[in-house]
Each structure stands twice: as C-alpha cells, then as structure tokens.
Amino acid sequence: MSGPFRLNVGGLIDRTRVLRFAFDKQSLTGFGGDTLASALLGAGVRVVGRSLKFHRPRGILTAGIEEPNALLTVGAGARAEPSVRATVQPLFEGLIASSQNCWPSVKFDVGRLNDFFHPLFPAGFYNKTFIWPSWHVFEGTIRRIAGLGVAPSGPDPDRYEWRNAHCDVLVIGGGPAGMLTAYLAGRSGARVILIERDDKLGASLNGTRDALDTTALRDVLPELAAVPSVRVILRTTAVGSYDHNLITAVESASPDDATVRYRQRWWRIRAKRIVLACGAIEQPLAFPYNDRPGIMLAGAVSHYLNRYAVAAGRRVIIATNNDSAYRAAVDLRSAGIEVPCLLDTRANTDERLIDEAKAAGITVYRRAHIVSTEGASEIRSLEFVSEGRSSRPTRVNCDAVGMSGGWNPTSHLYCQAGGRLAWDPFHSCLVPDGRLKSIHATGANVAQFDLASALDHARTTARTVVESLDMRFHDDAQWLSGVVSKRVLGICQTGDLGYLAAEKRDRTWLDFQHDVTVSDIDLAVRENLLSVEHVKRYTTVGMSVDQGKTSNLNALAVLAERTGRAIPEVGTTTFRPMFTPVTLGTIAGGRNGRFYRPSRLLPAHREHMSLGAHLEDYGSWLRAACYPRQQELPGAAIEREVGAVRSGVGIFDASPLGKFLVRGPDAAEFLNRIYATRVDDLKPGRVRYGLMLNERGIVIDDGVCARLSANELWVNTTGSGASRIGAWLDEWLQGEWPNLQVVVTDVTSAYATINLAGPRARDVLSLLPSDIDVSREAFPHMHARQGHLCGVPCRILRVSFTGELSYEISVPADYGVGLWERLMAEGERFGITPFGVESVLVMRTEKGYLHVGADTDGTTVPADIGFGLVTSRKPGDFVGRRSLDLPENVRADRMHLVGLKCVGPSDAFVAGAHLLDAARTQVAQETAGYLTSAVASPSVGGHVGLGLLKNGRARMGETLHIFESGRQTTAQVVSTAHYDPAGKHLHA
Fold first, then answer.
1. 771 plus 648 within the same structural domain
2. For a disulfide at 294, which of 378, 596, 859, 863, Cβ 3.0-4.6 Å?
3. Is residue 319 a contact partner of residue 404, using CB atoms and an 8 Å limit?
4. Res 864: pLDDT
5. β-strand 421-424 against 341-344: which pairing, if any?
6. Which residues does the chain have with pLDDT short of 50?
7. How far apart are CA 733 and CA 662, in angstroms?
C-alpha cells in the first residue's frame, strides 16, 4: 500500500513501480498509472487547497478536467506551472506539488477570517466597496492577493511544438461511443483522427468495477488499431472550436517517455466532419455545507475506487437524484467499504436498483435531503430528512460523501462552434440541438447515458457522417458487443437538485472555487439582474477555472426557481475557448527567442554574407544595410556605395519587394478601384506609379503597377507592407466586390528581384543573353517587358528608386542566386558594386522619393504629398475618395511634404526633429511640422531631407529652425528633388 486509503488489490495501476513525490514538502508515494489526485487521496490527504474569496478548505471533488478545487502548482523554479488540476496530472517520479491561495499553509490559512465575516462579502461587493475614495487606494492590496498561484519568473526551459492536421472525420473522445464512431468511419474509408484526453482509450469503462468490461475493452482495442485510416492521439484535450471546422487541442507528453523532446504540443486540426463524443460531467448536489473536504462526486468516488484502488473514505454515504450513484454504492460495498445509507431525492426509483443496493447491505432512503454537514477540515457527519421518518433530521457519521446531481453533456465545443443547447426534461440536462450540419454529437454528449443506447446512437452517427462524405457505410454490428452485454445500468430520470429552498442558502455552494452560493443568486435577482449573463458576471459563478462545468446547471436551476421561470427560458451562458486552461508556452510553441519572429532570408543570402554584408532586420526580412570593406565604417561604406551607383553601376537585392499578380477580365477595374491613381487606361507594357488609400483617405502604401497584358497586371508594394496589403486586397475582393472576375496571387516569395542601377546598368545587362531589347529606344523608363534572361523566364521593369537608370529584374526564386552571380561576373569590368538598403534610402531621399511610413503618418492624404490634382481628376470611384473631401482633409494649414536643406550645424538635423518657424524664437512654440527623412548626401553635398510642414508648398525658400533634444540648427525649405530634378539620369 502507498497510503491508508489505498486498497491492497484492484485498479489499473502498476504496483511494481513505486513513485516518490512531494506535496507541500511532505514526502509521499504512489504507483505507476496514478494521477496526482489519486495518489493524494490514497495517502490520506484531504485538504489540497483553499477557495478564492472565503479561503475555506477544499478537497478533491472530481476525477477529471472539471475539477474546481484541487488546483496545485506543479514543479519548481522556471518549470513551475500554477493551477494544474491534480485530477489530470499524471504522477511521475520526483513530482513536486504545492498548494495555492493560502498562507502560511493550506491547513491553517489566516485568510479564513474572511469566512467568519462572510455576510460582509456578498456577490458584487467589490463593485460597490472599492469606489470610494478611489479604486487606486485598494488596487495594490487587491492585486497582491488576487489570482490563483504565482507565475514563474524565469525563462521556460521546456520545449513546445505545433502540429497541423487534416482529416475527413475528427472524433473527440475515446469512450465507447467515440471508439465505435471512429472504427466504423475508418472501416468505411474515411480518414479519421480520434483524440482522447486520457492515456488510454475507454473513458468511463476504465473506471468500472466490472472486470468483464475491461477485458472486452482490451479485446477490441487491437481491432481499432488495425484500421489503417484511423489515427489515435492520446493525452490530448480539445480546447477550442472555431469557424470552418477548426479544432485546437493540446497534447501532453508522457512523463515516463524519456525519448519525447517536447512538453506539450499544440494541434490545429481541420476536419470535414466533427463528432463530439466528449461524454458528460456529473453535477454536484446543492445542500448546506456541501463544500467540505471529503464530499465528492459519486462518479469520482467510483472512478478512484475502480481505476486506482483508492477509497474515498472508510465510511461513505451516497446522495443522489439519479440512478448512476447506485453503481458507486454497490462498488464500494464490493470493495469492503462501509456504506451506511444511500439518500435518493426521488420518490419513484427503479425497484431493481433498490433491491440490488439492499442485497449489498445498503439502506436506501427515498425523498431524502441532506440538511447539514459537520466537520472542521473534513466531513465527519451529516444530517438528512427523508420520507416516512421523523421530521427531525437524522444524523449519520461518515468520513466521505459521494453526491450525484445528475449528468450534463460536455457541450462547450459545440457552443463555441455556434451551436445552441436544448433542454432535456427527462434527464434534466442541456444537450446540443443538432442544428450544426458538420458537427455531430453522440453518446453521453446527447444524453444517451445507457451504454447500449450510446453505442446505437454512435452507429447511427457514424452512418450519417460517412454518407454525408459521399462514402459507402460499412457496418460491423459485432464490434464492441462484448462490452455492451456486460453493462446493464444506465441513468434514468433525474430528480431535483436536492437542496431545501428555504434553509441556509448562504452556505449552499454552487461554485466551489469562487465561493458562489445560492444566496448570491438570490441577491442578483433582488438587484434586478435577470439575464443569465448578467448574473454570471455579478456573482462570478462559472467563471475562470470552472467555466460552468460543475456550477452552471445548478446555477441555472436556482435562477429559474428564483425568477419563476423554466430553465429553457433562463437560457445558458456563452462558452468561449479555452475549454481547459492552456499554458502560454503551448500556444507560443517554438516561437520564442530568435524564432519569435523569424527573419526571412533572401534567396542570395549566402552571397551577401560572403560579400561582408552588414545585416539588419527590415520588416520581416534580414537584409544588407550596406557592405563594409575591411576596417570600413558603415557610414563610409554607404557613401562609397552611393558614389558607385551615381557614377557607374550598382546591384541591389530587392527580393522582399511586394509582388502580386492580378489576373482576370476585371483585373484593371479592380485595381482602378484600389489605387487613387488611374489604372484602367494603362496600356500593356507600361508602368505607372500609384498610391493606395484606406477608407479615411489616408495613404497606406505606394508602388508601381505594370500592365503585362489586357487581363494581367503586376503590382509592386513596399516590402514591409506586402502581407498586409495582400490581406487588404483579398478583403475588398471577397467582402465588397465578389462579383469581379479577378484572382490576386501573392508571388512575393516566389520571385527573386535584382535591381541593377547606375549609368552603366544597360551595359551590364546587355552582356547577358536575352530575347528582350534593353536599348533606350526599345525599353524606355516606366515600361515593362517579359521574356527570358540567360534562358530563364523573367520580368523586367524599368523603374527607379535611386534616381538613376535602373532595371528591376524578377526571376523565379530558385534562379535568384544564379542571376546575382552572373550580373556580378559580367559587371566586374564596370566596377559593379553591391549596395544595401541604407544606401538606397540615401539616394531616394536625395531624389525626393516618398517612403510611405517614414514620410507619411496616420493623417497624410494624397494632397499633402503633391497628388491632390492627380486624385481629383481621376474619373470614377476608388477606396478613400469620399473621405478626401472631408473638412479635415482640405484644411489650408495641412502639413505638406517639402524638401529641407540644412544650412546650419548638422547635429540636430535628424529624422523626427521638430520644425519651428524662424520668426518665433521661443523653443516652446507650437511645432510647424517635423523632419521625416534626413541624410548626409554625398551626391548633393551637405545634409538634406524631407519633412512635413504646415502649408509647406507656399513656404518655399523660407528658413526654419530645427529642434531636437535640446539642440538647434536651421534649414531652408526647398523642392523635394535635391538631385537631378529634371530626371535626366532616369531617362538615360
């Protein structure tokens, strides 16, 4: 034995493997196959935690994911995980667990003083108490005592993984109904994934005392495993259900498997059909002081007994309003545990159940209600009244109570998918209404609590699912029949909740963790809160850790009784992901450190590294800022690269440039609505610069658009905005103009783009074999050509962001390295020089080219940057057009983009510096604008830049003060084009 409540025989545990663990620094032992909860119960540990508000002692209530009390911190240091449900935590050698929400210990907690003053802390007291004099007076104290457990402060040393999967049928739940559905769907040819939270299939069958059940189960498992199209994933809990049949699930690694390198795995599973076979959750009975340690769900008492050979107590009383608890009582007696009585709240109970209980030596009381319990840190006795007995309560000594208030299907995932619940009056529970076409529920999930009925329903569900996939259903009527034949007891009609409406409502718990009682619902109703959602938030019933699993049904029943309504009229609360708590590490997966936002590498990344590239992050891409040579500083390298491009030829990797193919009969019309500049009159082979605006008329991106043919256009966007603009184009196309015959394809990563710039660019390009004539006459500025270069299909745009003769060459990404190497080799005789992003930014500032996001902000409209006339003359409508006429967007004092030339010291001439009117000498004056771009120009000489200045176009030639961090200088307002304003170099 590993403790005073561990039985000498029975269970599915491995008694040959003794596991040592610690709870609150107390050394204990358990067996292989135990959970932390079963090991604690076996060791005689009753108090495992404290409630949130009153700090009342809490013991283990359930045996599954619905556990509201046994929330422990597992692990230590950086591996500590707070609020772990002990009922689902597998026991392993060296496990360290500690209680939460208590001080100085779980056995003696000074916070219990709150309980003695509980009338002062009713539901919603915090909303009224902490208003005066200010919330901030109480905030510090409340934050220190709030929460469950303490999050670890160190970096998480564990590894997490992500997995994606697709299937025809996803079955959630590995009980009898789930196994049968998966088996039949798989035998019919469907690709099936079956996920089960436990480490073995069988669910409720693993907790039965009938040995024939487990024997039959072991016999059928190999048959399920033999179906090749069925994949079983154990230790996996579905936690979220989303649109388009997306299910998220968390798989936990086995603590005994040293070969597994991950702690948890996050699954995203998309299925054509989903079958929910998640079973049902037993509900507590509501009676005075029903929260004492030792009071458990009857199903949990039976589960711990049969699966783990752990007795909930030596003298156990069963209280129920349905048939299922009779099995628990008989199981206890069969194990030699004293069951002095069974209390049934119903008047009419199947006589066969009563006869079986009496045959086991159990006295059954009908119409019996518990009126009180006694015990300090755990239950010692209870009092009840029953039909045909004295009006005075009868007192019975006990050290455990197994209560059953009926069963409620686990319907969270169904509701998360948009489904609704219907009221089943016979079983007094909420079941899925069956209206979702691609999500089906079966077994106990639809209140088929009898095993034979559950399997019949699963077979029907499997047929429906298979036939909806246009497959031929293959029925195997014999499968699982051996299990069915040995299960005769199900759950018949459920009676009332078991509480006496007039007595001790403030000591009758509904939510055990949040200390919500029946009287809290009463108070909410008196406060005129009749909506179930309002009552939930006012009382906190079913929030946080519970999510309504054990508290929701009873709370609905009390609210219905208090307001004179039926439960269907009351309705249900909204269930949201996550169904069970999920660690942030699991959701993040491997996306941490350098993988948090992985840098995208250029196709020719290795070539850039070999050239000594100084790499920096630009958007999501790791790119060369410049290429310093030996002992060369970045500033000197940039100046050298700019000079090489201006006088000879340079080569630049522009692969991150956003690239989209827009095709279809309505392609030009679509882009004409997207761009603020005209596209519909663009001729094939021509390129045009354009602006994109949002609905408020604000500039959000720019770039060039090339018409390749009548129905095909090539769109360039900024590199950092490619994914954003791609999603934006899809949104307009699918959400607003679905009638347009257009397909937008993001080919940003599919093509490598090399920019060849400088006066000798044509000379270099002419040396490569090509069927494209690159002469000045055949290929002018702002034109596009398609053809082959070195035998590789390519697109070449003659556009420039440097102000020089330039060719933008795009080839399939796999040929990017080869193109780079060939251009470098052919350009060697012309002194070809690689140049980086910073050099490009210097040249574009010299030329006065706009950089959206740097030279614009969240208020910039086309008129501010000189495109007011262009957009006003454009015929037809486009995104943002109406907003351009708003009074705010046509103010006379709006900020315009202007050029600025530094005429004083350059130390304050930096991007972001304020522009101040020279006529005003006070530093505290209102800003007239700010400097958006500033560079030391090797081409122009001196420092030049761009800026947004109030009424800037009317202020050419003025001198302004530049102010930045206490430093000042002066600058002159000039044209934006500092270099080659006539554009002679572009058209060379």
1. yes
2. 378
3. yes
4. 96
5. unpaired
6. 211-212, 485-490, 500
7. 11
* Predicted pLDDT of residue 886: 94
In degrees and rounded to multiples of 5, residue 789 shows phi and psi of -130, 120
At 468, which amino acid appears? S
pLDDT at 923: 52
CATH number of the domain at 99, please.
Answer: 3.10.20.440
Sign of the dihedral defined by the CA atoms of residues 459, 460, 461, 465, in that order: positive
Go through 80-118 and write b for each residue having 16 or more CB atoms within 10 A of its CB, e for each that does not.
Answer: bbbbbbbbbbbbbeebbbbbbbbeeebeebebeebbeeb
Instruction: Look up the CATH number of the domain holding residue 927.
Output: 2.40.30.110
> Same structural domain for residues 709 and 759?
no
Helix, strand, coil share of the chain (percent; to 5): 30, 30, 45
CB distance 174 to 162 below 8 Å: no
Q: Say which residue the tokens 């279809």 belong to.
A: 664
Domain boundary residue, one of 377, 404, 431: 404
DSSP label of 90: B
Residues 143, 687: Cα–Cα separation, whole Å = 60
CB atoms within 10 A of CB 361: 11
Q: Please state the φ and ψ torsions of residue 855, each to the nearest 5 degrees.
A: -95, 5
User: Last residue of a domain, which of 58, 87, 118?
Assistant: 118
Distance CA 674, CA 660 (A): 13
Determine the pLDDT at residue 984.
94
String of DSSP letters for 379-394: --EEEEE-TTS-SSPE
Query: φ and ψ at 590, to 5 degrees?
Result: -90, 10
> Cβ neighbours of residue 947 under 8 Å, at least 6 residues apart?
897, 898, 900, 915, 929, 930, 931, 932, 933
Cα–Cα dist 693/701, whole Å: 7
| Full-model pTM | 0.80
